[in-house]
Amino acid sequence: MTEQLPANGYTDGDVDTNATTERSLESMAAERYSRRQALFRGAGATTMAFMGTALLAACGDDDGENTVAVSAGANAATSAGRVVKLTGSPENGFGGFVTNWAQTSGPTVALTGTGSSVSFIAPGVSAATDLVFTFSATSVTGEVRTATTTVRVSPAVLGFAAVPHSLEDVVKVPAGYSVTVMTRLGDPLAAGVSAYANDGSDGNFAQRIGDHGDALHYFGLSAAGGRDDASSTRGLMVQNHENLNVQYLHPNGPTNVSTGPRPAAEALKEIEAHGVSVSEYVDAGNRKWSYVQNSSFNRRITPNTPMTFHGPAAGSALLVTAYSTNGTAGRGTINNCANGMTPWATNLTCEENWAGYFRRDAADDAKRSARELTALSRYGVTSRTGNYAWSFANSTDSIYTKWNATIIGASAAEDYRNEPNQYGWVVEIDPFDAKSTPRKRTALGRFGHEGAFVRAVNGQKLGVYMGDDSRREYLYKFVSSATYAAADAASTSRLAMGDKYLDAGILYVAKFNADGSGQWLPLVFGSVPNRPAAGSTPEYVFADQADILVNPRLAADAVGATPMDRPEWTAGNPVTGEIYLTLTNNNAAGRPLNGTDAANPRHYNDPKGTSNTAQYGNPNGHIVRLREDGDNTAALTFKWDIYLFGADAADAGANVNLSGLTADNDFSSPDGAYFSRSTNAAGQFNPVLWIETDDGALTDRTNCMLLAAIPGRVGDGGAKTITNTGSTGATATQATIVGAPATAANLRRFLVGPVECEITGIDTTPDGRTIFVGIQHPGENGTPTAPSSHWPDSQTGAAGATVRPRSAIVAITKDDGGVVAL
Question: I need a labelling partner for 286 at 20 to 30 A (CA). Which of 271, 323, 761, 788 fits?
Fold first, then answer.
């Protein structure tokens, strides 16, 4: 009988790996074995390959030879990343045998277990590949009998049932997966720090996990406490802390948060709840994760932590403050959103919406030059109070006064007029050295940094791809002067490697052409023209390269870069080298009917809720991908297309749901993007792309979500003309370049978060068997007395009506131990 296996259509009846016998399965079954003649009898074989595990049993013969016929049932099919169990059994269960499994051909896998039952994780493959295993038993008299079995492994496929829309106050994952809540807002990071009361009474956030956890990365640790990129059982979790649910940080909410005066203790708590945390994670066995409160690696990096500036703008007059009169140092990092990782195992944290934290009094305008006012306006440093009004907490302590950028001294060395210029950078952190000083890399430019994906190819220049997360901002690329040498990845002088590759090079900005091509425009002093006057804003004349790097938005304007729909995370396919850029959304003001272009092609309405509230513009966002010409990071040209368009599949027409989304994979406002690591099957050959959402348009149907995708390549679709519709009923057409449509096979919803959350940071262990996901600001619209979410307490049962929500990381594992998503 020939069995058709469900996973991929593989028929095992025509696979015969034993050349020494020609007996059929039927003849073997008909033959009567004697206990004297047979050492083995088949224990039976079943295959459960479609959703995960293949369980195999070896079969033996009775002819006294050391070869055995393999029955059809002894072979099986599965796909990469899934768990396979091998089981052999002696005749009638007789004891006294020494049993063993060994692999005899195919890509090498690690067998777990001993004796007659072992398991392994199917390896990544590019095409169907056979793995052959031999089961042996040695009798008390020394006789050895063997049997073989073959497992055919096919390329990785998504192996979970799509999670439906959800408005529940829990993290929902597919059947067969488990969720563990890890570090949460306020969790202590040092011995002697009390557990978080979560009632607004707690302080000392310099030693607690911060709020609004965003991008994260897991850095492996060895048993001895050194860097170990292969460790999947012990590591350091580095997480950004972007902002605050300020209403929950204090017993009854904040005092005078909009105007001041602010109590200094409240302001200090809020300041320290920003920044970055480093915490040690450990697996107690079988992916039972927890964190180590008193680890020597634990660290908080806050807006008060000393930093140094490196690169071309270091020492510029534009960075001079009362704290650093020579412009080479500063304090702190804030509004840390997305991130990047270097090959030499440092973390790049990115300062995003920093501008709103600063106060500028009305009298300040008259004290500024026209150039200064142009730069301040272009970056949005215009508030009269600053976010949370910290500068009103104390008039003499620079922890608070540095947030006042008003000119009050005789020179920049006597006040904090230039303090806004000290933010908006990419900051490099060595997570393995808690005493190291973070370095701000000015060669990468200053803007609303959403992320910094590093592409490092041996023998090429190193590239860093960065989005500027505001409407109608740009995509940037930094190309190092130094040629990357792979051996540098092992350096123990990690920040020195950053000096080598991140302090000298060229910053470029992207221009997307209508025909699917693009150019990288260099932002180099002498080649960048003056920024033209616009309305009441005068012409801006650049003074030097430091001026361009402090104000790259102005330089990008001047060279004619393409304004995008909120450029957020960047991620790189580890196999193809293609770069993915999430474009979260835009509104009618930023993307009007007559303001579309090929790379930002949609203007439409997505009515929300029972009241059908209008949402014109591009409310659901899209994802652009590009491939460098010659696959070289230093290329000056590229090809691009739009990989996916967000849409509400329930009511989106053909001119909106351009990717063919369904209820199982529709999404809105893509934000985080991440490819699985190349160290496991999910990141090999056709890597899994993870897409996180920060949505306000589709939240009448579902909370924010995480999707898993197996994308194709740039150019797998074609040209498309869209008919856009404006609020008056007017229409306009827009030509663009689209990728292949989504299908159930290549895009599925993997997770839905709790109420009012954003799905933020993401990473996996090197083996891909644990995925870490950030859940940011659940219940962000609630009040201290009436929280609108109770997560994470609600994850494991009913929570009290006044339990306050907390941002947190979750660890998600597959119950059978396989690679997540496959």
Answer: 761
Which positions ≥6 away from 740 have C-beta within 8 Å?
Answer: 712, 716, 717
**Main-chain phi, psi angles of 337, to 5 degrees:** -110, -100
Please state, rounded to an integer, the average pLDDT across all residues of the chain.
91
Contact 3, 73 (CB under 8 A): yes
Question: Strand 76-79 and strand 144-154: pairing?
Answer: parallel
CA 737 to CA 716: how far, in whole Å?
10
Q: Which amino acid is at 586?
A: N
Q: How far apart are CA 709 and CA 739, in angstroms?
A: 13
Share of the chain above pLDDT 90, in %: 85
Among 70-84, 376-390, 593-607, which is the least confidently predicted range? 70-84
Strands 461-467 and 177-184: unpaired
Does the structure show a pLDDT above 80 at 127?
Answer: yes
Residue 784: CB atoms within 10 A of its CB come to 16
**Cα(214)–Cα(306) distance, rounded to whole angstroms?**
22
588, amino acid identity: A
CA-derived radius of gyration, the chain: 29
Return all residues near 26 (Cβ < 8 A) that are at least 6 apart: none
pLDDT band at residue 142 using 50, 70 and 90 as cut-offs: confident
The answer to whether 549 and 449 are in contact (CB under 8 A) is no
* pTM for this entry: 0.92
| Spatial separation of the C-alpha atoms in residues 647 and 529, rounded to whole Å | 39
> 59 pLDDT band (50/70/90 cuts)?
low
**Are 271 and 257 spatial neighbours (Cβ–Cβ below 8 Å)?**
no
- Whether the per-residue pLDDT at 12 is higher than 50: the answer is no
CA distance 327 to 398: 16
